[in-house]
Amino acid sequence: MSLKIWIDGQFQSTEDAKVSVLSHALHYGTGVFEGIRSYPTASGAAVFRLREHLLRMQRGADALGMHLVLDECEQAVVQTLRVNQQAEAYIRPLAWYADGGLGLDLGKQTAHLMVATIAWASHLGGHKVRVTVSPMRRNTARAMPALKLTGGYTNATMAKLEAARRGFDEALFVDDAGLVVECTGENVFLVKDGKVVASEHPDALGGITRQTAIELTGAEVRPVSLAELKAADEVFLTGTSAEICAVEAIDERVYGDNPVTRDLSALYQRIVHGEEPKYRHWLTEYDLESKADRVAA
Prior knowledge:
By secondary structure, the protein is an alpha+beta fold. It is built from eight helices and 17 strands.
């Protein structure tokens, strides 16, 4: 079945949806996006922490001078999932500048909004990952806010490509002082003597899964050096796609068993699948049996 994409209030098939090659965002990265997940539950389907994701997207839109209506975005997400009859999906809302000229001044261009929902598996494969310290530096927040701006991810993709060419699964950014920033698409945690520490850095994205892990573990939040990270008992990564992902090694440093990470990952899976009543408020539930949105498509 051809999936539908919600674009500016209308549904189009993936084959029919088109963007001009002169779109401002294609040339200059003037867009903002989110990565969100929906999961099947015993009572239907649910999106995990939808409002928090969209609030972060709104901050990115504000940085680009765009107006993003949260309720419209939220409704578009649920409608698209229903139209595509998906209980489990990766959700990609994207706001971008299109026609109106290729000058660097913003304001003349037209802003657009789309929501796509696609089948997904963890981009890290759901296994322990091998990480390498990147020779590159993360975009500094003094130059570009640590939000999901499309142009900012060129930095991440280049670092990931360099790491892959050397045989690693993921790249780790550190700053000039040797402090941990983040990986290309995940935040970083360590476990030492059973205590969890969340790496904090001004250039790192404020991850929704990161915040979830902090709340679940009571993690200490502070700057972490690369030396401290390598001396940890466990290291794990968090992200919407990666979920809770154990690190097997950072360059030459190989980690052993990871019981804290394993228990946290199991709890996270129970939460996103609606099996922990205490955290049901993090779930936006939707009914796949509703036919109204499918008729509208």
